[in-house]
């Protein structure tokens, strides 16, 4: 099963719509609540990152019997130093993002913690693609 | 602790989920930082927050948290209560500060998640 969503940059009122839809689908499929929570927390953090840092992006979730793979691709500034971005507490978020309760440099580390596999492909000036895989 | 008793202890106003006030919750976590809320591995806790926007309700939804207590008398918009209702949450608002709210509820027996 394939699910697809567009993510608009800067639209914080809609940030989380894709994660919410993925959550509902996984619930309907009878995936265990503990696994669903890991999936949606990881995808939600990544979705908020697209809203906060990019010029817009697209989420594609592939649901298979053994697990879920979610690709979050954005066009945007990219991440100049991925190692630094993976450190807890490192953030380049704007004041607006912080006012929404994010941007404390917790997102990428938390995605990694919840994912069984996380791949980050990024090019400065072009954008970033995250691939999150979580086993059922 | 029953949600009804939590609301009464902080002189709170129930904004949605009035039919679920007899439900019990044992743990609470207080934060304005949603990224911290998203690191909590358990689900069954009361989220105490002064961050009143759609993303605080969204964060509760993603974390499977069904009970939210907004502190510092923050405005809770219809959009927020609408999203909370869609997800079957109980939402309470109090004029008390986060420190006072947390102190009262800790004293009443609500446990910290860590």
Please outline what is shown here.
The complex is a heterodimer of chains A (136) and B (114). Chain A has helices at 17-28, 33-53, 82-85, 95-99, 107-114, and strands at 2-7, 57-64, 67-75, 117-123, 127-135. The mean pLDDT of chain A is 95.
Task: Describe what this molecule looks like in 3D.
The complex is a heterodimer of chains A (136) and B (114). Chain A is α+β, with helices and mostly antiparallel strands. Helix content of chain A is 37%, strand content 29%. Chain A has helices at residues 17-28, 33-53, 82-85, 95-99, 107-114, and strands at 2-7, 57-64, 67-75, 117-123, 127-135. The longest helix of chain A has 21 residues, at 33-53. Chain B has helices spanning 3-9, 34-37, 54-62, 78-86, 98-107, and strands at 13-16, 27-30, 45-49, 67-70, 90-93, 111-112. In chain B, helix 3 (54-62) packs parallel to helix 4. The longest helix of chain B is centred in the C-terminal third of the chain and has 10 residues, at 98-107. The radius of gyration of chain B is 12 Å and the shape is globular. The two termini of chain B are 18 Å apart. Chains A and B meet through helix 1, helix 2 and helix 5 of A and helix 2 and helix 3 of B.
């Amino acid at each position: 099963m394939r699910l697809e969503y567009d993510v608009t940059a800067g639209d914080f009122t809609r940030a989380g719509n894709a994660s919410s839809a993925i959550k509902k689908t996984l619930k309907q499929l009878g995936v265990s609540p503990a696994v669903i929570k890991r999936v949606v927390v990881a995808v939600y953090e990544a979705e908020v990152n697209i809203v906060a840092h990019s010029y817009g992006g697209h989420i594609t979730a592939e649901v298979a019997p053994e697990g879920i793979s979610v690709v979050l691709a954005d066009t945007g500034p990219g991440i100049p130093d991925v190692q630094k971005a993976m450190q807890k507490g490192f953030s380049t978020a704007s004041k607006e993002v912080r006012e929404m309760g994010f941007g404390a440099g917790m997102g990428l580390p938390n995605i990694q913690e919840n994912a069984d596999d996380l791949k980050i492909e990024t090019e400065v000036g072009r954008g970033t693609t995250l691939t999150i895989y979580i086993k059922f | 602790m029953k949600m009804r008793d939590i609301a009464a202890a902080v002189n709170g106003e129930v904004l949605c989920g009035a039919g679920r006030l007899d439900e019990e919750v044992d743990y609470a976590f207080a934060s304005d930082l949603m990224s911290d809320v998203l690191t909590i591995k358990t689900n069954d806790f009361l989220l105490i927050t002064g961050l009143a926007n759609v993303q605080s309700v969204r964060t509760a939804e993603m974390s499977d948290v069904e009970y939210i207590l907004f502190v510092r008398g923050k405005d809770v918009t219809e959009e927020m209560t609408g999203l909370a209702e869609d997800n079957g949450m109980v939402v309470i608002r109090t004029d008390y500060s986060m420190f006072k709210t947390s102190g009262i509820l800790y004293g009443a027996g609500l446990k910290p998640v860590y």
